[in-house]
Design a protein that fits this description.
Layout: E1 2-4, H1 14-18, E2 24-27, E3 30-33, H2 43-47, E4 53-55, H3 76-85, H4 99-110, E5 122-126, H5 129-149, H6 155-171, E6 182-188, H7 191-207, E7 211-215, H8 219-222, H9 225-230, E8 238-246
Antiparallel strand pairs: 1-4, 2-3, 5-6, 6-8, 7-8
């Protein structure tokens, strides 16, 4: 619900100018709001200099709003360091990820951008060892079936899938989750939105001093009818990506070289 405090509003017009959908306008010395065009992004609330606008109800909570100083952000050097030092971590120690850390990661997903502010991302969070073991077993079973079905058309991919399954069955090697204490699956109706959600969580995971890896390997197995039904995945969402998260088992002392990005 869009709420305007008439006493605080000074009709400066900033909200109307910044609205991406043009659902606000100044008329008869007040701000008029067209809910049929609004995507409830909150941009008007964020740019209002007098705190005259609120969005509340229907899943939104105005108490979530926090005030920040616009220019008090991470410096470019800080961001550059974090980007260059990020590693795909596949070895974790036994220290569990705390509930507070999990909640901070979930909050990052909540504020990840989505097309037209649709907010259709959903998370599967597993931090119970038995639940992770069950999910891992289910995924390997489906991955094996997918691999067998791809032998003729995509033999290289099929061989990779079957190798991972064989290592798990014969050696107990976890080539899916790497024995991580926390596994998060991102589900969405959009690959882009789901990937951005994972990236936002990744930023917070790094800031918490945790290691993680983005994983695509489990997604085809997770999207099979058998697992969609078992894990009650909504029809309008698919598994986009997984993250395995935990405390570092090794230290990293430098960045690594990368090829330059081609400029088109």
């Amino acid at each position: 619900m869009f709420i305007l405090d008439q006493e605080l509003c000074i009709q400066c017009g900033t909200c109307a100018e910044e609205c991406p959908n043009g659902c606000l306008k100044i008329e008869d010395d007040t701000v008029k709001h067209d809910p049929t065009r609004c995507m409830w992004c909150g941009h008007c609330l964020a740019v209002c200099p007098r705190d005259a606008i609120m969005i509340d109800g229907d899943g939104y909570n105005v108490e979530d709003v926090e005030e920040f100083q616009f220019f008090k952000k991470s410096t470019p050097d800080m961001v550059r360091r974090d980007i260059m030092m990020r590693r795909s971590v596949r070895h974790f120690n036994d220290t569990p990820v705390t509930d507070d850390e999990i909640n901070r990661i979930i909050e990052a997903a909540k504020y990840a951008p989505t097309a037209k502010n649709c907010q259709h991302n959903a998370l599967m969070i597993k931090n119970d060892p038995e639940e992770i073991a069950e999910l891992r077993k289910d995924l390997f079973e489906q991955l094996g079936e997918i691999g067998k079905g791809m032998m003729r058309d995509k033999p290289d991919v099929a061989a990779f899938f079957l190798m991972k399954c064989s290592e798990f069955e014969n050696e107990g090697k976890d080539g899916l989750f790497y024995d991580a204490p926390l596994v998060i699956g991102v589900f969405s109706d959009s690959d882009v939105d789901g990937s951005l959600c994972a990236a936002y969580m990744g930023q917070v995971i790094e800031s918490l001093g945790l290691g993680f890896t983005y994983l695509l390997l489990p997604t085809p197995a997770m999207n099979t009818p058998q697992l969609r039904e078992k894990y009650n995945i909504p029809e309008d969402r698919k598994c986009v990506i997984f993250l395995t998260i935990g405390n570092y088992d090794a230290e990293y002392f430098c960045s690594v070289p990368r090829k330059d990005v081609p400029l088109l």
